[in-house]
Specification:
Elements: E1 3-9, E2 13-20, E3 25-32, H1 37-51, E4 59-65, E5 77-78, H2 81-93, E6 101-105, E7 110-115, E8 121-127, H3 135-144, H4 152-156, H5 171-183, H6 188-210, E9 216-219, H7 226-236, E10 240-241, H8 249-270
Parallel strand pairs: 1-4, 4-5, 6-9, 9-10
Antiparallel strand pairs: 1-2, 2-3, 6-7, 7-8
Helix pairs in contact: 2-8, 3-5, 3-6, 6-7
The chain binds adenosine-5'-diphosphate.
Length: 271
């Protein structure tokens, strides 16, 4: 069996996906990016190969994507995360009847991508200037509220009052706002729900710039947070498709492209 890999060297996390020659997902792995992007990417790849009992030679073609993709010299090719995300969401979205809009929230940016019925990118918009609508905002909030990142989603639903309004449009000011709300005796659940709604409304504004068409696919690490998913659905006024592995969709897209580029080269060699 031949295998193909995609590695998404993100600002916050490195994601690896391996697919087999039929395009079936063999496995995924997520590791922190840290400060040593290249070393940590190699380790992440080797970790996944070890888990799957595969050798490096079993991977016939590897495509790197993401913020630090150029640092991963071992890759056979590299592509932008917009393209890789579109391919991954298009493929994973087939099981949900097809998707046309992708919302991706990453560690330091957020994107909205519109794709056509064949998975080609029609339009996209990106926010990489401000951390307030990104995973970074959630990381800061979790730290201020003394909560684990993984618990923010459940906490969202535990409040007895309505979500609070978070006025700060900047992560640094939001940090003082959160501390101020805690000092006034407000509950963590109402604060975190407010933060989720604040991220959700910014994200909807971004998505409206590309046009929102059904179905809407939500991915990136923050899509693991069920509270944020609920707030985003509420603000959008429609259901979201959240895949089984939201954080690794872009790596999966790169792996699927690696597979098709390899197959295309092989068929050219036969001619
Ligand atoms: P990037 O590609 O920019 O590195 P990711 O798509 O990997 O970003 O998302 C990273 C973000 O995902 C983190 O900043 C964090 O806020 C969020 N995240 C990661 N794991 C979880 C989790 N288990 N639950 C909720 N949020 C998470």
């Amino acid at each position: 069996m031949k295998y193909f890999a995609g590695i998404d060297v993100g600002s916050t996390a490195i994601k690896v996906a391996v697919v087999d020659e039929e395009g079936k997902l063999a496995g995924v792995h997520v590791a922190p990016s840290g400060s040593l992007f290249h070393k940590n990417s190699l380790e992440a790849l080797n970790n996944l190969l070890g888990k799957l009992s595969l050798q490096r030679e079993d991977v016939r073609y590897l495509i790197a994507t993401g913020y630090g993709r150029k640092l991963f010299k071992e890759a056979d090719d590299s592509i932008s995360e917009i393209t890789a995300n579109a391919i991954g969401a298009f493929e994973a979205g087939k099981a949900h009847g097809g998707v046309r809009t992708i919302i991706n929230i990453g560690g330091q940016d957020s994107k909205a991508i519109q794709i056509d019925n064949n998975g080609h990118v029609v339009n996209f918009a990106m926010n990489d200037k401000c951390a307030a609508g990104t995973g970074r905002f959630l990381d800061v909030a979790a730290r201020n509220l003394d909560l684990d990142l993984e618990d923010l989603g459940d906490c969202h639903f535990q409040g007895s009052g309505a979500p609070l309004t978070i006025n700060s449009t900047c992560t640094v000011f939001a940090e003082s706002e959160i501390i101020g709300l805690l000092a006034k005796g407000h509950g963590k659940a109402e604060i975190i729900a407010g933060i989720h709604y604040s991220i959700a409304s910014r994200t909807v504004r971004l998505a409206k710039r590309v046009g929102i068409e059904d179905r809407v696919y939500f991915d990136g690490g923050p899509a693991l947070n069920k509270g944020l998913v609920a707030a985003l659905q509420d603000e959008l006024g429609r259901e979201l498709v959240v895949p089984e592995h939201p954080q690794t969709t872009t790596a999966f897209g790169a792996a699927m492209l690696a597979r098709s580029e390899f197959m295309d080269e092989q068929s050219l060699e036969k001619v």
